[in-house]
Amino acid sequence: MRKVSVEVCCGLHCSLKGGQELLDLIESNPLFQGDQFDFIPVNCLQCCDDGALSPVVSINGENYMKITPERLVSTLRTFIN
């Protein structure tokens, strides 16, 4: 089983638009507990275009911009074995 790396941007722009809330949501969701996911808060993914595309989450190196909590959960569900 390949571990899924989930980097959640907690930089200024992303934090102002919900980055920390996204991290809290996925860390507390029972669906994503265990060894399959590795949730990593990062200072900045440097791809939000000064906040225009924030919040940003990177899943296995693929960036997801303007991600909502619903879209994040939906996307992460596709990685559950």
Descriptive terms for the model:
4-stranded mixed beta sheet; 81 residues; 3 helices; 4 strands; globular; alpha+beta; Glutaredoxin
Account of the protein in words:
- The chain has three helices and four strands, in the order E-H-H-E-E-E-H.
- It is α+β, with helices and mostly antiparallel strands and 81 residues long.
- The chain has one domain: Glutaredoxin (3-Layer(aba) Sandwich).
- The longest helix has 10 residues, at 19-28.
- The chain is globular, with a radius of gyration of 12 Å.
- The model has no long low-confidence stretch (mean pLDDT 92).
The overall number of domains is: 1
Briefly note the structural class of the backbone.
alpha+beta
In what range is the share of β-strand residues?
A: 15-25%
Overall shape? globular
Cα end-to-end separation: 8 Å
Return the CATH class: Alpha Beta
Question: Main beta sheet, described?
Answer: 4 strands, mixed
Topology-level CATH name? Glutaredoxin
Extract low-pLDDT stretches: none
Name the CATH architecture: 3-Layer(aba) Sandwich
Q: What integer value in Å does the Rg equal?
A: 12 Å
Helix-strand string: EHHEEEH
Helix proportion range: 25-40%
* Count of DSSP-assigned helices: 3
Give the integer mean of the pLDDT values. Answer: 92
User: How many β strands by DSSP?
Assistant: 4
